[in-house]
Amino acid sequence: MTEFEDHHGCYFDRPPEKLVLEGYRRWIAGYDTGSVKPWELAWDLYAAMLGPQAGRRAWGELGHFVRTLKQCANCPLRSFPFGAHHVCREECLALGLVAGLQHDDPAAVRVCLNAISCPMRSDDVAAAAEGYANTLASMRHYLLPIPEAAIADIVARATPATHKTIH
């Protein structure tokens, strides 16, 4: 099997994508609700999929990534409920950023960073995302590549032409 082993079913059910997407959703839900329960659910997911030791490491990197994003946000980071089989703009950007870093795609990374972070914090967001992406890669969890053009199209459709970032 290769690092991009075939997975029958939904793209969002592939383990790497599920870790990023569902982890992001649960972490954001914790901020939105003021409850630790969604963070505990994220921990449960990571421990079940990666084991306690690796799960703790990846869960910590996820938390650092999302906290860094939240520090930059002038408006709420949006997400769909757990288990939804579609993504909003911010979820797409998080997936695209991690995938771009894992596949050394600087164009995709730049589009994601420009759309999800303010210019003064983009280096911090990039560093946090890189730590998370590298941690997942070290555990052989590689997201499928997302072409820069696909990400740019989603950004263009989701925001007015004059609004380059949500922050």
Helical stretch tally: 7
Number of distinct beta strands: 0
Structural class: mainly alpha
Low-confidence stretches: 161-167
Terminal residue distance: 41 Å
Helix content range: 55-70%
SSE string, helices as H and strands as E: HHHHHHH
User: Oligomeric form of this entry?
Assistant: single chain
Assign an overall shape: globular
Please give the radius of gyration in angstroms.
15 Å
The chain-level mean pLDDT equals 87
Please give the largest β-sheet.
none
What share of the residues does DSSP label as strand, in percent? under 5%
What would you say this structure looks like, in words?
With 167 residues, the chain is mainly alpha-helical. The chain contains seven helices and no strands. The protein has helices at 15-33, 37-50, 52-72, 89-102, 106-116, 122-138, 148-158. Helix 4 runs antiparallel to helix 5 (106-116) and helix 4 packs antiparallel against helix 7.
